[in-house]
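#struct-help
A.M.: can someone run this one for me? Single chain, 217 residues.
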Amino acid sequence: MNQPYTLFGCQNCGSTIVAAALQLTGLAWNYEEADYDVDSPARDRLFALNPLGQVPTLVLPNNEIMTESAAIILWLHEQAPQAKLVPSRGSSLYPYFLRWLMFINTAIYPTFTYGDFPAKWLPQNTHPEQLEEGISPHRQKLWLQLASASSHSGPWFLGENFSALDLYITVMCNWKPGRSWFKQHCPKLIEVAERVENMSELNALLCTDFSQNISKP
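D.P.: on it. Structure tokens below:
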């Protein structure tokens, strides 16, 4: 029997995206909750594997370590293409998928890394709220750009084709600026999120406390 993957994650964090992807692949995997802001043995194990202490951190069956959700998604697609996390290389959607996968990870995601905890990154005697105030409208602008890119007709971001982009949207639309803002300004993204949340394979995982309710293969 193949050794399972082990995902180190934190509730309501970006690791939920990888958890959902793993669930769809049908690969065997385990989950370990490791809140990087709370001292615990799990947090110590996380830092031993990933010196940045960031989630998701994925331990492969051969004990190799993977970090960065985009890299993990691409890896999982190679292992389980039937999950359709990524369009096929010959598809006209493939470069489009890669563009917006990297846009989410390099443009939108850093606004949370630095904007949600500005005091962590700024010198003392500065005004961290100013950083957050500056990042918030920029983040909204980025989401509007992403939403405008989903011009394909169909139920998913890529139109008729489900992909891991839909998992990112589903998880991240619950973060700032909040679901109400998305409903008003990016209704297509909310429609995508609601479809993903209603997928039978992900129904339990995407509930509030998915680490307790997830059904692992």
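A.M.: thanks! Residues 208-217 have pLDDT under 50 and may be disordered.
D.P.: also worth noting: DSSP finds ten helices and four strands in the chain.
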